[in-house]
Amino acid sequence: MKKFALGDVVNSDKGRRGIVRAAFKSREGQQFYAVEKDGAMDYLEEGRLTPAPRVELAA
């Protein structure tokens, strides 16, 4: 089962934040995600991603 959905904001293991644009499985069955960061796409394993903390804005 996928841990992240399209449009989720995630942090990579290198501390960079991006948006999930696609999810797919490798031939070996590992879950991968295409993550957009500053207009560039990175393809990362599910284990290298964590959910980004949500920021509450004061009204």
How would you describe this protein?
This protein is mostly beta strands and 59 residues long. The protein has one domain (8-51). It contains no helices and five strands. The protein has strands spanning 9-12, 17-25, 31-37, 40-45, 49-51. Strands 4-3-2-1-5 form a five-stranded antiparallel sheet, with no helix packed on it. It is elongated, with a radius of gyration of 12 Å. This is DUF2171 domain-containing protein.
Protein traits:
mainly beta; 5-stranded antiparallel beta sheet; DUF2171 domain-containing protein
Draw up the topology in text:
Layout: E1 9-12, E2 17-25, E3 31-37, E4 40-45, E5 49-51
Antiparallel strand pairs: 1-2, 1-5, 2-3, 3-4
Structural class by sheet pairing and helices: mainly beta
Fraction of helical residues: under 10%
Radius of gyration computed on alpha carbons? 12 Å
Determine the strand fraction and express it as a percent band: over 45%
Give the biggest beta sheet: 5 strands, antiparallel
Distance between the first and last residues' Cα: 36 Å
How many domains make up the coordinates? 1
Report the strand count.
5
Series of secondary-structure elements, N-terminal to C-terminal: EEEEE
On the 0 to 100 scale, the average pLDDT is 90
Can you list the strand order of the major beta sheet?
4-3-2-1-5
Please state the overall shape, judged from the principal axes of the Cα atoms.
elongated
Please count the helical segments: 0
Low-confidence stretches: none
